[in-house]
Write a structure and sequence with these properties.
The chain is an alpha/beta fold. It has three domains: 114 residues, 4-hydroxy-3-methylbut-2-enyl diphosphate reductase, catalytic domain (Cobalt-precorrin-4 Transmethylase, domain 1); 81 residues, Rossmann fold; 98 residues, 3-Layer(aba) Sandwich (Cobalt-precorrin-4 Transmethylase, domain 1). Helix content is 39%, strand content 18%. The chain has eleven helices and twelve strands. Strands 10-9-11-1-12 form a five-stranded parallel β-sheet, sandwiched between helices. Helix 9 packs parallel to helix 10. The longest helix has 17 residues.
């Protein structure tokens, strides 16, 4: 006689053996970068030190799960400083802000903390340096993205011209073509940006560029990892937000690397399982503002439907760390 619990176990084993096999190629690095870690910690420490509510201008990083978790702790997210009452701390998002924003905060005597990623601040400093040397600046980036708005807002109107594509390079009209510099948004496609830079250098041979590439280490590493994964996968899932530039670029890079079946999802519940029909090798990665537990939820959901094995595809180890603002240090 077979005991009932033994029968259940045998049934589970049989069910597992009957499930289709799925190899998950897990890209590394993936998920949070040092700038995102720092920005989230700034909000958490501010709530601990000053008490709730702490106001945050714009999403601290582009991920709804992160935002909702911080809201539960006492963060209040607003679009503009006009929505922040007097006498409460306010934090500026990791994407950076125009100079007019801290100026407005100071005029209202608001206590503010700047969570701008230090690598974005580096681009701001480059822009100011070029401007001081009399150069007009061409910014490679996506119109309307908060980082682009913040970078262009470091200088007077007209000092920075925006180009998004190689085609736009051919039509941009700088005031002095012989005295130009270019800078870039930090979360762009490495390959697409290289093509735009090549076009700029071809049209404006004297154009000055950054001493070190503006596209951040995390963006570069995640794109290299997803390329490696995509080349071996039938499909790729990128965990991230639709308003996250670096996450959207990961989808594009996966497709350009040969895996046309690449999709962005925000969480496990967004998976369209018909999208994975016939897939035996699935690449998974996450944008720089997506928490790792969302990736693990995706893997757990796959385990419920497939006989899953994991292969880690790790191209780099990241050890970058950014210090907190002095007001929160210690």
């Amino acid at each position: 006689m077979i005991r009932q619990d033994s029968a259940v176990a045998i049934g589970d084993e049989r069910a597992a053996s009957e499930r289709a096999k799925l190899t998950i190629l897990l890209a590394g690095p993936r998920g949070f970068c040092a700038g995102v870690d720092r920005a989230i910690l700034i909000v958490e420490r501010a709530i601990e030190r000053y008490g709730a509510p702490v106001y945050v201008r714009h999403e601290i990083v582009h991920n709804r799960t992160v935002v909702e978790r911080l809201e539960a702790k006492g963060a209040v997210f607003v679009d503009e400083l006009s929505e922040v009452p007097d006498g409460v701390p306010v934090i500026f998002s990791a994407h950076g802000v125009p100079k007019s924003v801290p100026a407005e905060a100071e005029s209202r005597k608001l206590f503010y903390l700047d969570a701008t990623c230090p690598l974005v601040s580096k681009v701001h400093a480059e822009a100011e340096n070029h401007f001081e040397h009399g150069r007009q600046i061409i910014l490679i980036g996506h119109a309307g993205h908060p980082e682009v708005v913040g970078t262009m807002g470091q200088l007077p109107e007209g000092a920075v011209l925006l180009v998004e594509t190689v085609a736009q390079v051919e039509t941009v009209m700088p005031a002095n073509p012989d005295n130009l510099a270019y800078i870039t948004q930090t979360t762009l496609s490495v390959d697409d940006t290289a093509a735009i830079v090549e076009a700029l250098r071809r049209r404006f041979p004297a154009i000055a560029g950054p001493r070190k590439e503006d596209i951040c280490y995390a963006t570069t590493n995640r794109q290299a990892a997803v390329k490696a994964v995509a080349a071996q996968s039938d499909a790729v899932l990128v965990v991230g937000a639709p308003n996250s530039s670096n996450s959207m670029r990961l989808v594009e890079v996966a497709r350009q690397a040969g895996c046309k079946r690449a999709m962005l999802i925000q969480r496990a519940g967004d998976i369209d399982w018909s999208f994975l029909e016939g897939v035996s090798r699935l690449g998974i990665t996450a944008g720089a503002s997506a928490p790792e537990d969302l990736v693990q939820d995706v893997i757990a959901s796959c385990r419920q439907r497939y006989d899953v094995s994991i292969e880690n595809v790790v191209l780099a180890e990241e050890k970058v760390h950014f210090n907190l603002p002095r007001a929160l240090a210690g």
